[in-house]
Amino acid sequence: MKMNQKRTLALLLFTALTFTQCKDAGENVEPDDENELITTITLKFAEKGTTTVNTFSYKDTDGDGGNAPVQFDTILLKPNTAYTLTVEMKDESKTPAEDVTEEIQEKAEEHLLIYTPAPATLLTYTYGDKDANNFNIGLKGEALTGAAGTGKLKVQLRHQPGTKNGSAVPGSDDVNLDFTLTVK
Amino acid sequence: MSFPGISTVKTKCKLFNKLVYSFLLILFSVSVFGQNSNCACFVKGVVRDKHSSQPVIGATVLIIGQNSGVFTDEKGRYELRDLCPGTYTLECRIVGYSAFRQTIDLTSGHIEDFSLQEQEIHLKDVEITAHRSDTPASQPLSTISGNELENTRGKSLAESLKGLPGVTSLQTGSSISKPVIHGLHSNRVLIMNNGVRQEGQQWGSEHAPEIDPFIATRLSVVKGAAGVRYGSDAIGGVILVEPEELPFDKPLSSELNTVGFSNGRQGVLSGTVQGGIKTLKGFGWRAQGTIKKSGNIRTPDYYLDNTGTNENNFSLAAGYRNKGFGIDLFYSRFDTKIGIFSGSHIGSVTDLLNVIKNGEPFIKSGFSYAIARPNQNVTHDLIKAETHYHFQNGNKIQWTAARQINNRNEYDLHRSRNDSIAALNHPELTFKLSTLTNDIVWDHKPIAGKLAGQVGVSTLYQYNLMSGRPLIPNFNQFNIGVFWMERLVKNSWELEAGVRYDYRKLKTYRIVSKEKLSDDFDFKNFSGTLGATKNFSGRLSARLNAGTAWRAPNVSELFSDGVHHGAAAYEKGDASLQPEMAVNTIGSVKYAGERLTFEVGGYYNFISDYIYLKPQPEPILTIRGAFPYFKYTQTDATFKGVDVSASWKFVKTTTFSSKLSYLQAYDRRNDNYLVMIPANRIDNQLKYDLPDFGNWHQTYISAGNLFVARQKRVPAESDFAPPPKAYSIWTIQAGSSIQLSNKHQLETGITVQNLFNTAYRDYLNRFRYYADEMGRNISIRFKYSFGA
């Protein structure tokens, strides 16, 4: 019986040790980043035959929530004019800012940019780049404005890993912004 | 915790009848003396403690339906006199245990027989499984055990409980399911896993309980606020997952379960081996393990891509009993990998509206067992030590210490765009929650033979570490609670009252604009319970309970700030939230006749400062477009409803049973309905029992229908799509138990769920916007038991 009690005591001691925990969650807080964050998108409209470049941006440096977006420009273009449109995307929550455009270019087979003007007569977009599977990308292209008017230009970055087929349907949005578009 | 025992029923003639039962920890012996047929029969016996063989003082013994309840005296004896010949139900109660009942036969026929000559007839061995339950006896307790539980084998915990009235589930597809009691879930439902409060990341609606139901031989649901005994969070109710008592000094026995499901081509294998040790008296052990593998789920018309699961669980238990002393050690590991339907990643509101418009997912897939991104990988380890000592004078002390480590890794659909980071294949979200709980409960010996009770203290220490995409802060949390409950039994009345005080300290750490920020919170609250049970007759009883429970806001309610991609909503927390408090009144009437049984229960749960996501007028603009903006806000809410269950054996072989759950929830402050409240439902079943055929016993076939109404009580303009239509699904079942030999038994069952392959959607499934529920599912199960 004594033996049993000793065993029990040893067991209890072992148990007590097992159940001890001492840790402070505060020591382990690390600023961590969202993998996929895009904080800034800049549309560069270079008027053909000139050196004029019009840039329009959306910028929310701390990402979703927190502070409101610091910049959301109205796109102002001339009527019946041809522009070369290039896009730049960045993650400015990190220092130094990360160039997302480059990453998208590298993973072009997973991404598709879509430009949808409303009304459709405001602007016509023509893709100027293709991925390895001969599908459009949309980082570079041509924009031809129509008659004067005001509307919206929806800019979408579709993330379509493994499913990109040239259409907008597969995948999900990484960017989905309605810029105000004024042609005058 | 449960404590089964074996009891031998023997009849000894010449007006002498001896029944020996072991009940819980108690050896409970009853002697029945039938004298003549003129109401002069009596029942007497001794109630003993199983460990110490000491008599139990102050246990209540009563004949149900006769206003004759007695308490055991200082030698554990009791005597019930002046009984007429007939069949009675004898009930024994000790505080801290659910009632134990046994039918005794005092018919005159027997007595005549007995008077002829003295002989001892061994009738049969009856295993009585009685269970410890700390629940207030006046609160309704619904249980699934035995055959009913066998029928749910292979399903998750929440799916197993769905058959109980008032219990539904909150789903993320078909693979993630959380129990909902009377419309409340997640942090408002407490799960007691083997006597320990389950601490995972319950706040998340796509975080299923990390429990293998094969551990349990009994699943119970306590409906209504039960804060006094269980502490915070028990607002909607408590789920008790209870394994069998360890087989102290018993021979080796084993059990093997295999279940196959056609949908998802799921296979489940679970085995248990247990026994005592011959050379070590008072010792018992058990080892148990489960493997589960499932592939893509099929709705009636299409497969859901990446919806497989992979689960590997095991548990080890050992215990020792010596006189009044007992110790149990328990370790369990739960390890699951769950694929999340790849079409459920919603980038923007446009994405969601497009798929709703399409009516079915854009992603098409065939069958596969492979689990790709997105997925969840969760492990939960529980180590528990429970010791108790029964003093000779009737007092008892119990100490339970448990440590839980919950590791949750969530992998998003998309890896990092940066190749070197993506190659690491790290989860985008990692939570590590570590919890230490200690509970000490003192059961005092009955005072004046009428009043029994317990006092206890519970502590919890917890820390949470998370990394990855910012979602919830890290925190340390400390909680202490003290409670006191007393129960008075007098004649056919049973009254109980209890009070509890809890104090919780929470310290959170998070990064805001690259600065470390810490916040301190103090929450404290009283809870109370008051209840009464009245036994009108052996068959009819009524109970009424008013109880309170509270819940401190959880870290996600305090600090959420971002887009919830499953819900296409921007959710923002509020650090100034106060604890919510529930006052729940629940009453029920139960009738148990030979052919007809029914239970009708009604409840009214008032929750002040109920925390919910309130839609805000202005959307939040993000780079993925504008998202509807919801803020955690408090209101006063009421949850009222009725649960009815009835079964009627209208001919000897055929039973009709019906279960109804009706619930109305309302936001009192804003005069509006609440979102995500389960729709009302009725479940009917017709069961035909076949006579025994050779060694085939308990053979039956049954057909059932579940009708779920459309949820019409929803706030206007609060959702992307209206709640799904009402649905009706059919299930057929058959089962039998085959006695292969004295020691070998095989149980088998076949079930066809969703018999007609009906396409339907449920309001409480987050995939309701774009995907149907599971189509037809045929399952076959075998349970082979060897030994005891």
Automatic annotation (TrEMBL), chain A:
Key words of the record: Signal
Highest rank taxon of the organism: Bacteria
Residues making up the signal peptide according to the UniProt record: 1-25
Keyword Signal: yes
Keyword Signal: yes
Protein name: Type 1 periplasmic binding fold superfamily protein
Organism: Dyadobacter sediminis
From TrEMBL, chain B:
Name by which UniProt lists this protein: TonB-dependent receptor
GO biological processes: siderophore transmembrane transport
Family membership noted in the UniProt record: Belongs to the TonB-dependent receptor family.
Pfam families per the UniProt record, alphabetical: CarbopepD_reg_2 (PF13715), Plug (PF07715), TonB_dep_Rec_b-barrel (PF00593)
Domain TonB-dependent receptor-like beta-barrel: start-end pairs: 292-755
Subcellular locations according to the entry: Cell outer membrane
TonB-dependent receptor plug domain residues: 138-238
GO molecular function: siderophore uptake transmembrane transporter activity
